[in-house]
Amino acid sequence: MFYESINIPLWRALREIRGKAVLDVGCGTGALGELLQQNGNTVEGITWSAEEARIAAARLAKVYVFDLNSAERHRTELRRSYDMLVFADVLEHLLAPRGTLAALLPLLSPGGKVYVSLPNIACFHVRLGLLCGGFEMSKSGGALDETHLHFYTLKTARELLRGADLEIEKVDFVPAPSVWFYQAFLKKASSEPPERMAGRKDFRFYERWVYPLEHLVASAWRTLLAQQFVFVCRSAAEKPGGAAAG
């Protein structure tokens, strides 16, 4: 399975950033990292897949291939520090997400930021499925992707990050209706390398015209209408007293 994904609220939070050293943890084929690299940042990525790494290597400054479940063992392979750590749609796939965060957070430079996106298991289509007695895992992604080992609500996602000694500065979300429709009726699982997402006309149309309106409507009840939550964090150890807020 190849992961070619650009998280729109995450990209919008990062698109004005320039000249930073970025570690894209779980970079997939490097779709998001490529946009950051084009903006003048130095982006390195980590993926478990050699096939994804071959695609990402042409887009990013450097790509490491190893299992994030043993990130502590591989940490010495990475550069000394990064201004930004990005965990986009990856922690839910890991055996011990908090352990992976603990292994990689020491690489964050002082004043650096951590960007995390996590799926919302409480979104409307999962709730409707449970109401009807269903909890069917999917081969084509989404909140019920069959490779997910952990499931989060907004509350438990906050608890994960605070438990990893992160202070949450901002919370955004991916609206669910369009994503659900696409995952349920249009997207098919494929073992073939995907089309470059940033260049697709449907992605550019959705980001410019559909997403802003959908996001506005979904903000009225984000715990029900969010597909994912996106968090901007910093190390709580840098805050006086070391206590996480958020």
Brief synopsis:
The chain has 246 residues and is of the alpha/beta class.
Write out key terms for the chains shown:
disordered C terminus; alpha/beta; seven-stranded mixed β-sheet; Rossmann fold; 246 residues; single chain
Protein model, in words:
The chain is of the alpha/beta class. The chain is 35% helix and 22% strand. The protein is built from ten helices and seven strands. Strands 3-2-1-4-5-7-6 form a seven-stranded mixed β-sheet, sandwiched between helices. The N and C termini lie far apart (35 Å).
What portion of residues belong to β-strands?
15-25%
Q: Shape from CA axes?
A: globular
CATH topology: Rossmann fold
Secondary structure tally: strands? 7
The domain count comes to 1
Could you name the CATH homologous superfamily?
Answer: Vaccinia Virus protein VP39
Read across the widest sheet, the strand sequence of neighbours is: 3-2-1-4-5-7-6
Low-pLDDT ranges: 242-246
SSE pattern: HEHEHEHEHEHHEHHHE
Structural class: alpha/beta
Biggest β-sheet strands, sense, barrel: 7 strands, mixed
Number of helices: 10
Indicate the CATH class. Answer: Alpha Beta
CATH architecture: 3-Layer(aba) Sandwich
Provide the helix percentage. Answer: 25-40%
Mean pLDDT: 91
N-C termini distance: 35 Å
Radius of gyration: 17 Å
